[in-house]
Amino acid sequence: MKPERLVYTYVSMAAHYDTVWGHGTPDEGVERTAATAHKYNIPVTWIVNSGSIGILGERIRRWHEEYGDDVILRCPAIPRRSDNPVAQMADLLNSEWAELQAAFPWATTKVAGAGIKDGIAIAALEEAGFEGIWGYCWEQVWWDGITNQGVPWGFWYVDKDRYKIPHPTGGQLVACEWTARDLHQSYHTSSPVIYSTDPNDVLRAGLCTGTDIEYWKRLFQDYLRNTASNEQVYFLQHQEAHEMEVTEAFAVYPFSHVVACDEMQDLFFQYITQYPITITTLPQAIRQYKQRQSETAPCWMLTEDPLIRPELNEYTMTLGGVGLGPWPDTLFYYDKECQLAFIKGDNKPRMLRNYVGKWNMQEEFSEPAPPVFVTHYAKSAESIEIVYEIGHWKPIPYGLAYWDELADYEVEPGEGTAVQAAVIEDKLVFLRFNLTGGKMKIDLKLRRKKEPN
């Protein structure tokens, strides 16, 4: 592992709300959240708006000096009935950002936060010169009125004309999820809301308690282990400040939940800070991503079953119950052209999402995987040779996986077909290439590593 490659950010919604479930700025929840994070010198990225800036401004400026806290802007409501909603929302964004920057002049990386339900906000953010958008929900369907199934996880450049798809050549706006998901369990159970780093969700599901965060620890280890194979692994965690208080303004959950969530976060902050990970704010992470990557960076995550199960209760039954497994190890991958998932032992992907040429944002971009045949396989003490053959198939991005114990092997460079090959954790070889419409033959050769002289 290379823990310094794991980029951890902690974000808290601290905006003014005027809704049926609360009215005002979560002053008490902000204080409680800050006290626990700052205890471990973790900077908080506060999501604020014009309604909360005046109340929280002095404290956030002090915390910025003492702990490095930062701010992003909560997106204003989208004017749905406007003749030009993108332009009108861009004007609102500019007005809100001017007020934010007047209060926090050091906030120069323009990042906004919103639940992503359509492309209006993305287009407006680009028009207003923003660099980042927080709030995508990997695999989520229906919950909170958000269906983001099909989008990547982590950090990626979003196409403003196709708000669920990575930009094909680069992009202005870095998209990121609202809180890190358990990729393995979210995929296998189709319950991404339950399996996440959101304190209230895992508490209600019975996955964690105020004294037991073993599930979160195993989830964190899944991300940490993948630092060996990726240049950067992003682990973003979020908690709403209005869910951390019980007052006249906000009482979303009972006080017992507030206490338990605070204890859970305390234990988790204590756990992750024992590793030399990179702890930063969301604007800094987005700025660094743009400096490192000119387009969406390929990312793969090898995951395993944490073997901790939720309770059977009203919350976990909301969407029809949760599968209990056990589930096999699974490799997830995405780049600017596709998203793939491989089950341990399978050569071809169980999930294939093709982003190329897609325009309908109401779908999840799934494609059938073509049949794959192994026409040659030979394994000896010194080498492994495999020939994969794929028949005529339409041009699409594609990939294969070869699972084996590969600690002593390395890929031998080949010639011909443009194939990218990588050994992941000495457990599999991942092959990435594009189908062309004609027959394809893929040669994979691995040789035992030579002993150093």
Give an overview in words:
The chain starts with 5 loop residues before the first strand and ends in a 5-residue tail after the last strand. The chain is 25% helix and 27% strand. It is of the alpha/beta class and 453 residues long. The mean pLDDT is 96. The chain contains 9 helices and 23 strands.
What key phrases describe this protein's structure?
453 residues, alpha/beta, ten-stranded mixed β-sheet, four-stranded antiparallel β-sheet, 23 strands, 25% helix
Q: What is the count of DSSP helices, taking H or I runs of 4+ residues?
A: 9
Evaluate the radius of gyration: 23 Å
Query: How far apart are the first and last residues' alpha carbons, in Å?
Result: 25 Å
Oligomer: single chain
Largest sheet: 10 strands, mixed
Which parts are unreliable, with pLDDT below 50 for 5 consecutive residues or more?
none
- The overall average pLDDT, rounded, is 96
Categorize the overall geometry.
globular
- The count of β-strands is 23
Helix content: 10-25%
* Overall SS class: alpha/beta
Measured by DSSP, the beta-strand proportion falls in: 25-35%
Task: Produce the secondary structure layout.
Elements: E1 6-13, E2 17-19, E3 22-24, H1 27-39, E4 44-48, H2 50-67, E5 70-74, H3 85-103, E6 111-113, H4 120-127, E7 132-136, E8 155-159, E9 162-166, E10 173-177, H5 183-189, H6 199-205, H7 214-225, E11 233-238, H8 255-272, E12 278-280, H9 282-292, E13 299-303, E14 330-334, E15 338-343, E16 351-354, E17 373-379, E18 383-390, E19 397-403, E20 409-411, E21 420-424, E22 428-434, E23 440-448
Parallel strand pairs: 1-4, 1-11, 1-12, 4-5, 5-6, 6-7, 7-10
Antiparallel strand pairs: 2-3, 8-9, 8-10, 13-14, 14-15, 15-16, 17-18, 18-23, 19-22, 20-23, 21-22
